[in-house]
Design a protein that fits this description.
The complex is a heterodimer of chains A (303) and B (336). With 303 residues, chain A is of the alpha+beta class. Chain A has 9 helices and 11 strands. By secondary structure, chain B is an alpha+beta fold. Classes of the chains: A alpha+beta (303), B alpha+beta (336).
Chain lengths: 303, 336
């Protein structure tokens, strides 16, 4: 550890470095998070999107702090080390939708630009097949709900597939994962987004889940404001909105329940999953409807 | 007036890991007191291109080991400016000004520093006729337009039965101003022809607006230069002309003092004859009077008639002095 402390002081010119935990240090210039990277092309992509996705003084990402040599990363043994700001206060969601939408829009805009990455992650489409025999033994009302949702899930999936095939030539954005609203931190009322060091994700899947949760926590009005703010950014157009709709229509939440059924979970567990799913189902419906209205509004603007 | 202000500057200072304990407002400059020291945050209206040129100039001076310019601090992300939708900001260490006690004038010291920068960055450029013609014609056209504006204002004033004091002052000098504009054109033409003949001309890094308000003098009475926001690569004559125009007033328009500035300058970088021609052209063209007339026409409510007249008179005095100065510069050249 002492070796790393001295190395960090030398690389970044800190006078004081003290480890708070394995990933966070306290320096004379504030708390910093240490990340390590073994894939240099992935590191390069993470440096680039973090550097590009900011709008001062509203939105900033946890960009790589430069070394004394003005490098974004420094080689430490067999890996690359980067340093980022570590802010404690969580950024609020309600009444701050404009900044959130701006961040998402900036990430989408950057994600649609040319890039050369060897490996990207794309969520596979789940299978919606099930065995009706698995319903045996469950309460009648649960069985009824499952049958109804299964039918609707197939309809949603078909709709998604139809739009997907129409939009197959439209480029999908390459995005960093949206994992949790706690990734957004606040300092001087600026949204500082803490990125990950995960593989780049192709498409809207992680943003879909993030905004479904947003609707559940903050409601439809708030979600509408987020979408409106995304819509004000450069690259988010009707084609992108349709790609987003495809992801939201795809009933990923149903797949969770079928997995639960297949693994013979208890009736109580299945019922809990069903309740959670029905909330997400409704939130997804609201999200599709908001995106649809946004597309209609764009047509009105054009005509 | 000093005021206690914090936002939105704290969010800009975060880019530097500077957490302000107190910010004092000095207009475009904010004095920032932090646990890491005292800094100056400059708020500018530079556009992206100007900001790039500014940074390029600062880096170039640093690379040339020039120590008399105030350094610009990089953000923790390695950039030298921070842009918002309305402003571009940069941060420097805070230097406290010391009362100037030197024997030479402040302008002599500044002229010396300007010459040092020019000497360090001077480059002989091949006279690319197409390229030079374009900027030459542009300047000629600009001057013609300005001359036309003055002539129109003279016609307008002369048609009136009762002229205002401003108009009367202007009309009294209209002929002299027109002659100066013609003379400026001749000097410009001389510069062009000499360069064409020599097939080369010199460029330097120009500060753009060097004056005592863009310098801080230390205990040794030596200046540290700031505000390179208008810097560009141009002929030395351009920087010198702007320097003379801006600083003339500090000497009460003393030609001898201005000639001393040139002596200080030429100790480091002697001017070529054609550069003196260009300098005289720039100085003689009555652009300051055009601005005074424009201001009189467009901003009648902003200042009183007396204030407009006083401004015009000051500029006329300055131009008359410039006329004599340019004769001395050129005579000096002819004698040598």
């Amino acid at each position: 550890m002492m070796e790393l402390v001295d190395w960090l002081k030398a690389q970044y010119g800190f006078k004081q470095v003290e480890f708070i935990n394995e990933a966070v240090i306290l320096t004379d210039q504030g708390r910093k998070r240490i990340r390590s990277w073994s894939d240099s092309s992935l590191l390069e992509w993470h440096v680039e999107w973090r550097d590009r996705c900011h709008y001062t003084p509203i939105v900033l990402t946890d960009r790589m702090i430069r070394t004394k040599e003005e490098e974004a990363a420094a080689k430490w043994k067999e890996q690359w080390i980067t340093l980022h700001d570590e802010i404690e206060e969580v950024y609020p969601q309600l009444d701050h939708e404009k900044a959130w939408g701006m961040l998402m829009g900036l990430m989408i805009t950057h994600g649609l630009e040319e890039r050369q990455l060897e490996r990207v992650y794309q969520e596979e489409l789940p299978s919606y097949e099930w065995n009706p025999m698995l319903l045996n033994g469950l309460r009648d009302d649960i069985q009824d709900q499952l049958i109804r949702y299964h039918k609707e899930a197939l309809v949603r999936s078909k709709k998604a597939e139809r739009i997907r095939s129409q939009q197959r030539k439209v480029k999908q954005p390459l995005l960093d994962l949206f994992q949790s609203p706690d990734q957004a931190r606040r300092i001087y009322d600026v949204l500082i987004w803490r990125g990950t060091n995960e593989q780049a994700h192709l498409g809207y899947q992680s943003l879909r889940q993030f905004l479904i949760n947003w609707q559940i926590v903050n409601g439809t009005k708030s979600l509408e404001k987020v979408i409106a703010s995304i819509g004000h950014t450069e690259a988010f157009n009707t084609d992108q909105a349709l790609l987003f709709i495809v992801e939201v229509l795809e009933p990923y939440e149903w797949a969770e329940v079928t997995r639960s059924l297949m693994s013979n979970e208890s009736e109580r567990q299945i019922e809990e999953k069903l309740t959670k799913m029905s909330n997400e189902w409704e939130a997804a419906r609201q999200l599709v409807s908001i995106l649809g209205r946004w597309i209609d509004d764009q047509k009105k603007v054009v005509t | 007036m000093r005021q206690h202000v914090e936002n939105p500057y704290a969010s800009i200072l975060f880019y530097y890991d500077l957490y302000p304990e107190h910010i004092e407002d000095f207009g475009k400059i904010k004095k920032v007191i932090t646990s890491r020291g005292v800094f100056a945050l400059k708020e500018t209206t530079m556009n992206r291109l100007e900001a790039d040129e500014f940074i390029h100039a600062m880096r170039k001076l640093a690379k040339l080991n020039y120590k008399q310019a105030i350094p610009i601090m990089p953000t923790k992300y390695g950039e030298y400016t921070v842009a918002t939708s309305t402003h571009i900001y940069y941060v420097m260490p805070w230097l406290e000004a010391v009362e100037y006690m030197g024997r030479e004038s402040q302008e002599e010291k500044l002229a010396t520093q300007m010459a040092v920068i020019h000497r360090l960055t001077v480059k002989t450029q091949v006279f690319d006729k197409g390229q030079v013609d374009e900027s030459f014609q542009q300047l000629i056209k600009h001057w013609e337009m300005r001359r036309l504006e003055l002539s129109r204002f003279a016609d307008f004033a002369e048609r009136k039965r009762y002229m205002s004091p401003f108009e009367l002052t202007f009309i009294t000098h209209a002929h002299m101003l027109d002659q100066m504009a013609i003379k400026a054109g001749e000097h410009l033409q001389n510069w062009y022809e000499t360069c064409l003949e020599k097939e080369k001309y010199r460029t330097v890094l120009c500060h753009g607006r060097l004056s005592r308000s863009h310098a801080i003098f230390n205990m040794e009475n030596e200046p540290t230069l700031l505000n390179f926001e208008r810097s560009s690569i141009d002929t030395p004559a351009r920087d010198l002309a702007s320097f003379c125009r801006t600083n003339f007033r500090y000497t009460m328009w003393s030609e001898d003092e201005v000639l001393r500035w040139f002596m200080c300058y030429e100790r480091h970088l002697p001017l070529l004859d054609e550069e003196k021609e260009l300098l005289c052209g720039y100085l003689l063209f009555p652009e300051p009077v055009v601005f005074a007339v424009e201001s009189y026409v467009n901003d009648r409510q902003g200042q009183s008639e007396l204030q407009h007249v006083q401004r015009l008179e000051k500029r006329l005095i300055s131009l008359r002095k410039v006329q004599r100065l340019s004769q001395k510069l050129i005579v000096k050249q002819e004698e040598s």
